[in-house]
């Protein structure tokens, strides 16, 4: 059974083909147009999806080795995301489904990030916990079956990816800053600067305080207490401080984000007695998080799973695998299924 999947929720246009749960191709067209704007511009994203979608689907099909006539169902990202972007992928999938007279499968993007962990041969056992960390979401999800998930905890303000991107912006780095912080952090001392860990009850997260702490820390060029506005250094002194300490600043910020995430995940795993743990979403591409997550598993005797790099950030491979499990349950959508900015 072969599924063609489309992902277009944000700024990546992606198409993938899967055959009986095995991914045959996963092509991603990244939209470079946003870098100059310091963030994703929704209107530009929709236009770029319009330009990219046909060639990306074409290449994904060719790479899979399957002709379009061998496709049994079309899966697409229904929600959540930028509405204009979702509509491009949604309308494309619906048109193809009508033209080919094949079933349509509506996939939730956050559920798909979690199920990216079911792509490799070595899969977690149910129930497992997944820390889903992306540009728009930060969640701990309890996964009881491929299509049965419960949110255990989530962010009450910024997402982890947003925390990375906002910190990077304050450091004068281009969008998306997460991968750049990761890169510079590799040569830095994570214990050089101490940023606060928020005290949030339960399994929820908060990252807005960290952003404020970084703002004041940089405004004071690292000379005053990190989260108190005591004096403002000159622009020149601030730039010099960032230039000379970029690696240590990035390593310290990254290390704090990682401890915030993993402390909550390990608390949930302990309390719920779950030993199979996964991470997913764009931030799970972070090398520091991947390493710390694996070390935590070894230390506590938990089984840890991380999707392959290409299935961490937005991709249609994860939509295809989710589509596969929904197909098995005959969970098909009708043509009037709406694309939705929010959901899950
Ligand atoms: O899942 P994703 O591709 O898109 C959303 O659904 O949001 O996640 C994008 C987020 C961005 O905030 C980006 O900065 C972050 O993932 N990200 C990283 C890394 N690679 C991507 N953050 C930290 N380190 C990375 N290596
Ligand atoms: Zn995503």
Automatic annotation (TrEMBL):
Cofactor(s) needed by this chain: Fe(2+)
Residues holding Fe cation: 109, 113, 314
InterPro entries listed in its UniProt record: ATPase_NBD, Gcp-like_dom, KAE1/TsaD, Peptidase_M22_CS, TsaD
Tagged with keyword Ubl conjugation: no
PROSITE patterns xrefs: GLYCOPROTEASE (PS01016)
UniProt keyword Acyltransferase, yes or no: yes
The entry's keywords: Acyltransferase, Cytoplasm, Iron, Metal-binding, Transferase, tRNA processing
Its biological purpose: Required for the formation of a threonylcarbamoyl group on adenosine at position 37 (t(6)A37) in tRNAs that read codons beginning with adenine. Is involved in the transfer of the threonylcarbamoyl moiety of threonylcarbamoyl-AMP (TC-AMP) to the N6 group of A37, together with TsaE and TsaB. TsaD likely plays a direct catalytic role in this reaction.
Official protein name in the record: tRNA N6-adenosine threonylcarbamoyltransferase
Organism for this UniProt entry: Niabella soli DSM 19437
Gene it is expressed from: tsaD
